[in-house]
Design brief:
By secondary structure, the protein is an all-beta fold. About 0% of the residues lie in helices and about 50% in strands. The protein is built from no helices and 29 strands. The strands form seven sheets. Strands 12, 13, 14, 15 and 16 form a five-stranded antiparallel beta sheet that branches. A four-stranded antiparallel beta sheet has the order 3-2-1-29, with no helix packed on it. The protein has a four-stranded antiparallel beta sheet with strand order 4-5-6-7, with no helix packed on it. Strand 12 and strand 13 form a beta hairpin. It starts with about 35 loop residues before the first strand and ends in an 8-residue tail after the last strand.
Length: about 400
């Protein structure tokens, strides 16, 4: 749906032959002080370059573009294989080669420079694929198709090329918001820590669905009794796992909340616990949370979520029992913050402001998790997803 992804016009052209342009300005060696960042974008103006390579000085937070690659239309969301040698990108479109589907593309990553070289591309078996992850063993890619409300599993070959979808699960139902929940809209799919199950957040039906993952046979088995049914009109979008407790935190796009869920990894069952607002008390206005991450802060944890509309990052302290307390809400110094990411050192948090075309760097106090603005930023068109090369195997 165009309203789901910032009301952009869906691209509707084939992808054959569009991935032939080599990476530009990507032959610069990366020093030990440089962290390499991949940036997925929307190419709604038919811009050829879609994935950007950005180097970040880990000492100062300074950013500079070191490369770009033609990855086809709208390579919006990215994932890096656990071996660190392959990157996957969705092509978020509704039609490919005359068929109602988007695509998923794979690229090899240069060991020396981090430059991307196209491997292959497969249909996503659904329209507007908006999320891709890799199971924790590196055997399959998992894709959420928003427009069609389905999730797909694509086997990964040993060299990193993708096979055609081996299994597709169609979601069913609708939600309370007639303008956004007239049908299913799968928005996230990720393997839980044991790799026995995958969880899929569907914005259109207010559910987080549970699937048993059968890697050997490349199948997804729906564990319907394990699904979490969230508050009507909440619109679950992205999720993050607690690193130690059996908890899942869900960013709800339509009512600006976070849902805390308990996950039973033996049964594959979710149960709702508590809900928290992502906005400061007293603020009213249009807002849509997007991304969510949990990070270590001193001896504890901090949970971060991005607010589109309020244009902020909300930071919560995480108690030993998993309870959240809102500690800080800070402006992203840009418009429509989508994905954000911590750098490998944990000293910096980077935010992709889609509408204002900027990636903004915040200093992060590692003991408390609090964020402080810096002067470091880079201008790039329609940034959506940020993946550091060092974050191999990161699933959320």
């Amino acid at each position: 749906m165009s309203s789901r992804r910032d009301f952009i016009t869906a691209s509707a052209f084939g992808l054959l032959g569009v991935m032939t342009r080599p990476t530009r300005r990507s032959g610069l060696p990366v020093s030990s002080e440089t962290a390499l960042l991949y940036v997925g974008t929307y190419t709604e103006d038919k811009r050829e370059e879609g994935i950007y390579l950005v180097g970040m000085d880990a000492r100062t937070g300074e950013l500079r573009q070191v490369g770009a690659v033609n990855a086809g239309p709208n390579p919006s969301f990215l994932a890096i294989h656990p071996n660190g040698r392959v990157l996957f990108a969705v092509n978020e479109i509704t039609e490919r080669n005359g068929k109602p589907t988007g695509a998923v593309s794979s690229f090899t990553i240069s060991r020396d420079t981090g430059a991307l070289t196209p491997l292959n591309q497969q249909a996503s078996a659904g329209g507007d694929p908006c999320y891709v992850s890799v199971d924790r063993g590196g055997h399959v890619a998992l894709v959420a198709n928003s427009a069609s409300g389905s999730v797909a599993l694509l086997p990964i070959q040993s060299a990193g090329a993708l096979e055609a979808p081996a299994d597709v699960a169609q979601h069913h139902g609708s939600g309370a918001d007639a303008s956004r929940q007239e049908a299913p809209h799968a928005h996230c799919i990720v393997a839980e820590p044991s790799n026995r199950f995958v969880l899929a957040a569907d914005l259109g039906i207010d559910r987080v669905l549970v699937y048993r993952l059968d890697v050997k046979r490349a199948l997804l088995h729906h564990v319907e009794e394990g699904d979490a049914v969230l508050q009507p009109g909440s619109g679950p979008r992205h999720l993050a796992f607690h690193p130690k407790l059996p908890l899942v935190f869900v960013a709800n796009e339509l009512n600006s909340t976070i849902s805390a869920l308990r996950f039973d990894a033996q049964l594959g069952a979710l149960s709702a616990l508590r809900t928290y607002s992502t906005l400061p008390a007293g603020w009213s206005g249009t807002n849509y949370p997007a991304d969510i991450h949990v990070a270590t802060s001193g001896r504890g944890l901090t949970l971060y979520v991005s607010n589109r509309g309020h244009n902020s990052i909300a930071a919560f302290s995480v108690a030993p029992d998993g309870a959240l307390t809102l500690e800080q809400v800070i402006s992203t110094d840009g418009d429509w913050p989508r994905n954000f990411s911590l750098d490998p050192t944990g000293r910096w948090l980077l935010v992709a402001n889609q509408r204002s075309g900027s990636i903004v760097v915040f200093a992060r106090e590692r003991a408390s998790g609090r964020l402080t603005p810096t002067r470091q930023r880079i201008e790039l068109p329609s940034p959506v997803c940020l993946r550091f090369r060092a974050h191999v195997g990161v699933t959320t």
